[in-house]
What we know:
The structure holds two protein chains of two kinds. Chain A is an alpha/beta fold. Helix content of chain A is 26%, strand content 18%. Chain A has helices at residues 74-78, 94-106, 124-139, 176-180, 200-211, 255-271, 275-284, 313-322; strands at residues 29-31, 42-44, 63-64, 71-72, 82-88, 118-121, 151-156, 164-170, 184-189, 219-227, 253-254, 285-292, 327-328. Mean pLDDT of chain A is 83; it is low at 1-11 and 331-336. The N and C termini of chain B lie far apart (134 Å). The interface between A and B is large, with 36 and 42 residues.
Amino acid sequence: MRAPTWNVPTRRVPACPYCHTRTPAKAYLRQCASRCGETAIEFPVSAARKGECPHGRAPMARRVCPACGQAVPREYVEGHPKVVVVVGAEGSGKSTWLASVIRRVAKGHLDDRFPGMSLDVLGEKSRLRHERDRVLVAETVLHRTTGPEPLLVSLRVRPRARAVVIAFHDSADGTAESLAHADGLVLAVEPRTMPGDAGIARLADAVRAARGLRPDHRISLPLAVVLTKLDTVWDMLDPGSPLLRTVPRTAGYAVSDGVDVHHETAAWLGRWGKADLIRGAHTAFRRHRCFAATALGDRADGRREPVPYRVEDPLLWLLAEFGALPTFRGAERTSS
Amino acid sequence: MAETDLPGLREADVRAYLDEVITPVETGWAPHRNLFRVYRLPADCTADEVDSALTSIPALWGTTELREHTRAVERLRRGHPIAARTLGDPRERSVHRTAVAAERTALAKVVDQFLRSAPGMPAAAVTALVRQSAGRWSRPDVLAALEQHRAVEREPTSLDIPPDTPQSRRITDALADLGIPSLWEYLTRNLSSAGPDVHADALRRRRVHLRTRRGAGVEAEVTVLKIVEQALEEPEGLSQLLRHEFLTELSVAVLLGYQEVSFLAAAEPQRSVASGLPRDPDTLAYAVWCRRTHRSDWESDYRQAVADGRLHAALGVLSSRQLTGDWERVRDALAATVDRLAADLTAARELEDTAPEDAAARYLAAGRELTDPAITSGLHRCPAMAPAEVSAQVHHDAIVVTWQESTSTAGRLTYRVSRGGTVIADDTDALALSDVPPFGVPTSYTVQTLRNGVPGGTAHSGEVVLAPEVLDLVVESTMLSVHGRWRLPPGAVGASVTRIAPSGDTAEITTLDGTGFDDTAVLPGVQYRYLVRARYPGRAGEPEDSAGLTVHGECPGNPRQVDDLRAGLSGDTVELTWTRQSGTPLVIRVPHDGVAPAPQVLRAADAVVAGRVVAVSDTGRASVPLSDLAGQRVLVPVSVSGPLAAIGPATRVTPPLEPVSGLHARRFGPQVVLTWQWPMWATDVRVVWRLDGPPSGPLDPQATAFEISRSAYAGRGARITATLPGEHWFGVSVVDSGRFGPMVTVCSTRLREVRYSVRRAAWWRRGELLVTVHGPEPAPDIAVVAKSGSRPLTPEDGVEVLRLPALGPSEPVRFRVPRHLRRPVFLRAFSLDETVALTHPAPHLLVVP
């Protein structure tokens, strides 16, 4: 096994997850706690003396964006937030995939590969949305429209590792602001839909327009093309297909398994009339990878709990691309 | 009228002179009272004007228009010398001017008293005033005085004034009881939000609302509603009631002056409309004012008399006056009616002895048109028959009085019910009522028939005693005695208790101050009946007892075990049956660990050793939802008696063991996920599996096994790691307390994995690739397939570039990718043996750029 490769994250001015205004961390505002009563005010972070508000009391931990007035979690402002934009056609399973992967990591289902990996949902709005999506995944498979608010999470790969703060923006097309500040893209594709490019050309144009790039510029953002609802096409797969293989138990991202899945998924997408999607992703995005996953699993037998499969692969690849996760060239397979 | 000096009179002036001078003089006005008017002079006239008038006016008297008024002209001529002297002398003229002004002032005061702020006077009033002045004032004087008060001669609008009827008087009385000043206010306040639009529905709703209430106010309001309902059924009925009421109020206001009438008329315009009166308040006020102030009232006297049924009086009003043609016809018709009614009364008087019912009917018929004391006295002489029978019976805590209908037929028959000297119902048309007399006292009832309110015959009931039972009677048992407690009803002085044993033996039990007993002379396990009767003082020292209440009491003995508890399944419910024990409820308990305690008698507080309670019943049967058992199957009967409990033999629920359905195995590499549908009763299954053959049963010694609960299956599913290649057989059977249901099997094949690799050949063999099959196991037939752009998914999905036989060389085999395939080219090796799967350790090397 090769030694893992690490990318050192570079500090930059974080953009507000709500209004996307880039504001230095010290320019964010803090709020007096409720104990200050009617005299409570908002004051710049730099105005805090010994961590206290002007009334000499401990202020609230959260920050307030000076541009839009929205409360932003402290971890987001002081950390190295990554913006991941999840796009895809309506009903393609974006929100379900996102809720499933968050739930899977938060409940410790990846402990066998990543001992001590933890995930916290940041901020009241994100917690409300996570709770709603959790119910969405656990109780029903009906899709519904989600709001424009991002989902903020703090993820630690190991117990004492630096937390990676990620803002997931989940929308059908992706707003120009979120695409302009995105660090990674996830494109959800549903199997057996109408042939075409699944919106990859429109997505590439939107990213280029948001970032002011030339029309023929190859975008350097990592793009994960996720083939969702894999359980609906299980019966078509060969028993030896990598899509039905056990996920390798490596403490990082297994490149060989990822490439295997990528080639297999791309081949199936091409067979289902989505060669334009593969071609468009290859042409427009310098870094892209295909994944296949199911967030709910086959629940026809009446089980209450969903049985997700390989939903975490896109997130692990993005983390590896962000430099927050080690990568392994080979695959560690379980012994047969 | 201003006096002007007009030497020559035109035709219009002649007519004015006729109105102002000639006509008043003809009707008695003395010309010397105002010589300025006779000679058409201003009050401040000069001597020349006087001389001219004294010449020209007498010449006027000789004109054709005035000459025919001989009497007036002669009177003027006779007074001319005195007039010439008076007017010709400045001093006398001044004195005369002062006298004329004083007359004007006096007349103005008189007119002011008549007007009392009214805007005018009718012509008849003006004429009457002139007539009453006996020549002191003339009509022009009065008109001038009116003008001075800014009033005019004006005729009032005629009003249709309804007479005062019995309905209007009753409604006035009822409204007085309610404390509401007028029917209009009652209607607008209680029945309608928009004034006069009163509907029968609103009346019905109000009556329904009042049906649940009692009191004098309610009765008065019911009376109002009845009259309004009757009025609504007649055309303009309600309007007449409102008009009479409004005009009465306005007439009373006349006493306070015209301003009060005008204010009242203008206060509620909707009321005027609803009453059928003029909408203009000034017109209405003036009409009422003139009617009360300036009009003779014989017409209203006549109408009132007719409305009251006083036909003789009405006829007297008409007969005492000089009538016009229409009124004469009215008088004649009225006289005929009076004669007819007098004949009817005479005939009724003659029938009183022979046919009293017919006589009463005739009296009543006449009474509908005529009010006459002879009718009332006649009805008293023909009383209605008494009810045939009156009965009084005790029903619960009241006495129900019933009677049979009177045999009389004439008139409206009602009844008056009285207890002793107390009338408890009057003028009721019901044939039964309930009453609560004093408790424990013999009481009888009297029912009297009323014919149109005139008392008739009476009937009496027998004596009856109302003796309510004791209240809140409860009986409690201890191990040695039975205690009873109750409350005495009002009027009771004590109670008596009788104990009745199952054998029929009776015994009187002493009561504690009349509100309870403690019976210690009882045997445990024997159920006694206790008859408790309330005691009342009665009459003449003889106490009266109530019928009595019966309760059961029993001192508990040792509890008896229930040894025949049976359990059966019915859908999702466990049906339990056992032999019922009187007075002892059975508690069904479920042991927590499924182990039932041995049958025994123990303290009731220790019965918890038998588990938690799932049902309590004393009927010999109970139903328990299966979900309440929480997976347990053992049920323990516990009978409780006092401080002791008896645990009986437990019974067991035996649900049917059915096979699972829809068993399916899905393989993810070495892992197999089993799915199935659970039978209704199943809570656990046993999963067994083995290689190369189905398990022989749930206890197959060669199979691997584990048990999984329903909740665990719902949570994480059933996952099994079966890594060895070959056919894995899985069996699933429902398990319940060591019993197994039918086993269902399914097979999942694990392919044998063979690794292969593809790498570049040495640099001098440009473009060649090497494929190698690894592993100790024999390799299958292998086909290497190449495809442009994407990975081949099947052996047919591309170009086969190499085929290796099954027993081929284990050394690397060289092959070359055809040049015509567009790069990148994806390679993949397929096993032609379906039991073998090929894997590549580094798939990115399978791409030829």
